[in-house]
Amino acid sequence: MTALAIDTATPECPPGARLIPIDSPTYGRLYAVVDEADYEELSQFRWFVARGGNTFYVQRDVRRADGTWTTEKMHRRLMPDAQSVDHVNGNGLDNRRVNLRAATNSQNMANRRGPQRNNTSGYLGVTWHKRAGKWRAQVQHKGRYYYVGLFNCPTVAALHRDKLARELHGEFAALNFPPRTGREDS
């Protein structure tokens, strides 16, 4: 498993938000970012972090009425009726409501961040095509791969891949070059 880069410094708190410190024996001290309105309710519980793909998620153990245990994720507590909850900026520690949106499982998977571990280009959806001696760009959508093309440069391939990803996945598309929206305050 690839090592995740972990920033253990106290993050700058966005306006209208509060930080909940979470001590992890494995990762040190991390912080969940929550809205001020949710802070009192959420800070009363003992939360821990669990790695999930390229991010961490904040969760806690909960005893059921029958005495068995289950896990509750912080974002599911904030949006209990959603089929799936997507973190807009891909940061599972950022549980501000502006960063959470209801999604289908397919939409949530489309917003996965970062290339796979075996990726050599450094870009999502861009791989080396050995026979052609070029970079291949493709996008996966609903279990099917959509071929974009072959390119001499991995950056150009990534730009073309992003264009198709936006067409297929809309606002849920995970992009190599996301547009600046002003929402990157996490």
- Numbering strands along the chain, what is their spatial order in the largest sheet? 3-4-5
Write down the secondary-structure element order.
EEHEEEHEEHEEEH
Number of domains: 2
The residue-averaged pLDDT reads 85
Low-pLDDT sequence parts: none
Decide which structural class fits the backbone: alpha+beta
Oligomer type: single chain
Would you count the extended β strands for me? 10
Itemize the secondary structure elements and their pairings.
Blueprint: E1 17-24, E2 28-35, H1 36-43, E3 48-52, E4 55-63, E5 69-73, H2 74-78, E6 84-87, E7 100-103, H3 105-110, E8 126-129, E9 134-141, E10 144-151, H4 154-169
Antiparallel strand pairs: 1-2, 3-4, 4-5, 6-7, 8-9, 9-10
Architecture overview:
By secondary structure, the chain is α+β, with helices and mostly antiparallel strands. It folds into 2 domains: 17-108; 116-172, AP2/ERF domain (GCC-box Binding Domain). The chain is built from 4 helices and 10 strands; from the N terminus they run E-E-H-E-E-E-H-E-E-H-E-E-E-H. Strands 3-4-5 form a 3-stranded antiparallel sheet. A 3-stranded antiparallel sheet has the order 8-9-10, covered by helices on one side. It has a two-stranded antiparallel sheet with strand order 1-2. A hairpin with a 3-residue loop joins strand 1 and strand 2 (28-35). The longest helix has 16 residues, at 154-169. It is elongated, with a radius of gyration of 19 Å.
